[in-house]
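Posting this for the archive.
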Amino acid sequence: MVGIGLHLCCIFFDVIMPRNYRKKLGPRGKRNYDPVYLERAVLAIRRGTLSTRKASEQFAIPYTTLNRWVKDKDNKLLTYGRPPALQNLEEEKLVQILLICVEWRFPMKIYDVRYMVQQYLNKCERREVRFHDNLPGLVV
């Protein structure tokens, strides 16, 4: 009986219920463009074939987004969050040391690795503000 009343209500008020919901591109305030178009637009701007304003209109990408990506020479926009405590080369060397310990069948616990990093940072005279006494794993 309720279904009939709802049906009559929809007919009476001329309400059409959508059967297939189509999600709009991206949540509000988020990226509503394809990353491929972003790459093409940035290349066109850097080559000088399009201005930033024209590329923004042609590729439907916000002007400020394009401007930020064009000015980003070091690809800093590709990294997220806080910078790591160790650089890539330092991490690779730590991994090599750990692999040698595995080959020698020397058991290592997680706190052993933490103390190795602490000793390394102390020896390099680097102070990592995020760690308590340069010991990783403990957030200040």
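The mean pLDDT is 81. Residues 43 and 70 are 8 Å apart (CA to CA).
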